[in-house]
Design brief:
The protein is mainly alpha-helical and 267 residues long. 76% of the residues lie in helices and 4% in strands.
Length: 267
């Protein structure tokens, strides 16, 4: 089968599955993202050469306790987000450091929890406003991610000349990054007007947060892959790689998006 067709069909199945499960019910949404968590945990373990059994058990227990059994405690949720942000900052330093060859076992578990497990748990909390499940919020954020990725690639391919961070991701350009961000903001404006009917400033802000931190998440996963000497995190999606390759942007951005919503609620 033609590679482009394979990639297109694989991507379409992924989008239908994600949007469908999110829209059908909170239960199907949690089941899908719980499955994503297990797969991403296994893929990350492969990247950092970590035995999978214990990390997967930790991921499942964490998801059941903090995502499936929802307490709606703002204090607990903010503690989870705060812990994730602390590790996110550490990951940003890791991205721009020259330490590429060795990650000790303790750091592997810290990154596993703060880069994979907690962000996906926090991601499941974003569509909830109080006790009300609003799937359009998460679907809109994914639309922004997909828009940003698509136009970053198209703009970068057509006019990109200045490398964004060549030693980690040689194909990414500053022009592509800016182009992706501009179209993400346009998508956010359209979402605010025609879909969520929320104020423009909310979705312009979300587009900027998602585009900037999503790009950092993509670069961080690229660094892990460079250290591991692999092109993709897995092979579950023909033409795309692994689930972590598809979710790297959104999971890194999720605590920043979540905290933005908390600030809105307190404002």
């Amino acid at each position: 089968m033609n590679e482009t067709l394979t990639r297109s069909l694989s991507g379409l199945v992924y989008i239908i599955l994600l949007v469908g499960a999110t829209l059908i019910s909170p239960e199907s949404f949690l089941l899908l993202f719980g499955t994503f968590l297990v797969i991403c945990t296994a893929e990350f373990c492969d990247l950092v050469n970590l035995k999978k059994t214990q990390p997967i058990v930790i991921a499942i227990i964490g998801f059941i306790l903090f995502a499936y059994f929802k307490t709606y405690s703002k204090a607990n949720d903010l503690l989870l987000a705060g812990a994730t942000l602390f590790i996110s900052i550490r990951l940003i330093f890791f991205l721009f450091s020259d330490k590429r060859q060795h990650i000790d076992k303790q750091s592997k578990y810290v990154y596993l929890i703060g880069y994979i497990i907690l962000p996906i748990i926090i991601l499941t909390k974003i569509p909830y406003v109080g006790n009300i499940f609003k799937p359009e919020i998460l679907i809109s954020i994914f639309i922004i991610i997909w828009t940003n990725d698509t136009f970053a690639y198209l703009v970068g391919k057509s006019i990109g000349k200045t490398k964004l961070y060549e030693k980690i991701s040689p194909k990414k350009t500053i022009e592509g990054f800016i182009g992706g961000l501009i179209f993400a903001v346009i998508a956010g404006i359209l979402i605010a007007i025609y879909y969520t009917k929320q104020p423009l400033y909310i979705w312009i802000s979300l587009a900027l947060i998602t585009g900037i931190f999503g790009t950092l998440g993509d670069l961080i996963e690229s660094k892990f892959k460079r250290i591991a000497g692999v092109k993709d995190s897995g092979k579950i999606m023909p033409g795309h790689g692994g689930i972590l390759d598809r979710l790297d942007s959104i999971i890194f951005a999720s605590p920043f998006i979540f905290l933005f919503y908390q600030i809105l609620n307190y404002a």
